[in-house]
Fold this sequence. Notes:
The structure holds 2 protein chains of 2 kinds. Chain A is an alpha+beta fold. Helices cover 22% and strands 37% of the residues of chain A. Residues 61-80 of chain A have low confidence and may be disordered. Chain B has one domain: CATH 2.40.50.140. Chain B has helices at 26-29, 98-106, 143-166, 170-178, 184-196; strands at residues 21-23, 35-37, 46-50, 54-56, 58-71, 77-84, 87-93, 111-123, 129-140. In chain B, the strands form 2 sheets. In chain B, strands 5-6-7-9-8 form a 5-stranded mixed β-barrel. A 3-stranded antiparallel β-sheet of chain B has the order 2-3-4. In chain B, α3 (143-166) packs antiparallel against α5. Residues 1-15 of chain B have low confidence and may be disordered.
Amino acid sequence: MDYSDxxxxxxxxxxxxxxxxxxQKVESKLRRLVEEFGVQPVEAERSVSNELxxxxxxxxxxPAGGANGGxxxxxxxxxxxxxxxxxxxxxxTFDGKVVSLAGSMSPSIAQSxxxxxxxxxxxxxxxxxxxxxxxKEGAWYHIESAVVDEYxxxxxxxxxxxxxxxxxxxxxxxxxxxxxxxxxxxxIGSVRAKVIQEWEVTHDRMLQSGIIGDETGTVxxxxxxxxxxQKLAVGSVYSIFYAQVDEFNERLSLNITGATIMPEEGxxxxxxxxxxxxxxxxxxxxxxxxxxxxxxxxxxxxALSRQNYCPIHEIQPxxxxxxxxxxxxxxxxxxxxxxLKRDVVEALTGMTLDQAKEIAENNPLGMDxxxxxxxxxxxxxxxVCKGREIDNRLLVNSCELQKFDSGEHAKLLNRAGExxxxxxxxx
Amino acid sequence: MSANPQDMGNRRDGSFxxxxxxxxxxxxxxECRYQFKDGEDEKSxxxxxxxxxxxxxxxxxxxxLTEKTRQGEQNVFYRGRVVDPTGTFFVMAGSxxxxxxxxxxxxxxxxxxxxxxxxxxxxxxxxxxxxxxxVESITTVDKDTQxxxxxxxxxxxxxxxxxxxNGTSPDIVKAKEQYPTLDPAVYRKMAYDALAQIKM
Lengths: 427, 200
């Protein structure tokens, strides 16, 4: 490519101010930008010209500011008949069985629990003002003119003073059909699943929490302390009828405190646990990545603070070093929280634990230097991560840099070219 | 079974949804004319509406940093120009993004860089518009990453154009209202030209 026109223009521009340019230097700069970095010639010329302006101390033009804004929104609703599909705002008359009762939490509520028909269950509340007869767990009732509203995003059946309740002679057993974990939606759901993991209890009213799953996916569960409630055994399979499915931040969790829980024989062959592969760019490396110190007390392993302080075991001067990266992977549509363990970090960054230790102990920036070096090596890179997604965080088993795929390139060129001629022909 | 607020048992480690970083070419970002807030709150996120029908609170771009300038006396900030196959992104990092500013200050031009940042739409006194990207982070990368980004961005834009044809999402409806003269063929050509700049 010939750059003499561009060089002439630049030369003329600065000639006016009585400055002389080094044509060879300008040409090599232009050539480097265009040929090595794929910058368009116009932009390259601009860039080199501005660089000279700074060199000669001639002010270039600068952009200015101002802002604006606005907002929008929409909504809608539909309705259907059976209990499982009851929608807020509907009035319902049906025969149902009280499958679970909960203690009352408020003097204005006489009773609450879960009532079910063949199609499924719904949470209900009987207001004290309704003066309704108390219902018994396990009994069937004909319920007329109850109204469905919504409480915390979950359909909720309100029994008010206009509702009539009649006990039925019926004693039929109700066996709900379990749904695959991945098909659970907020409301009441039944699953057959295996307890995969138990978590540390974070609240003194909590009996147990953890992860359960089946062949299709996993979900968090919680049991609150109530009389007669028992913990589930990790590794065992249970049928869980009429659990409350809550949603928070687009994540589901099962509250099984009021559910009917039956131990099951046998095992569920493969709990997939959301094993998966995600592709995208690493767009954030969180603090606490790089080299860290861990508590040496057996079974603890918590990350220590800068001052070697463990939240449980206090100061631990004989800490153990470890590597990890916490960050976000982003494919342009969805973001994934990543946690990379030591071996994955070593493979991705090319920095071993020993090398990191060496930097941490001898570099003036210490552990920060390890963080910075690792950040510069992985941030903004395209990777493929494989691992297990638990509670919206991907525990990564392997993480590799993506390679440029010329097949993919050709495919995209065809796609862009094809649709270009299509729209061209149509319009 | 109870319905106490704390029974939701769901508040683990400050979970929130992170806004994804959209992939967009400089030539498309330049055409943005509409910016909105999602919610009334002061802290509600601001979105720039892409002409091809998607909101973006954050973008990811890879290109060549051709220029950077330091400005301001007390409140130092850096401006930079990052070039992709279709045009130029205007990026900036100030003292509110100290880490990004230091990263930008360190990089020698020209260099391939990956930028994660937030787009902002400004109207200049002369009535014309400018989209600048406030940098959250910027790192130098290799040529391969730049090529992967062009593929990724072309793919995402073609997907948006496909969705635009018959889509009814709020963003698409809004885009059709705000950008009534949009010609999809122009954007398809943009994707094609960007891809064609990568040597086979």
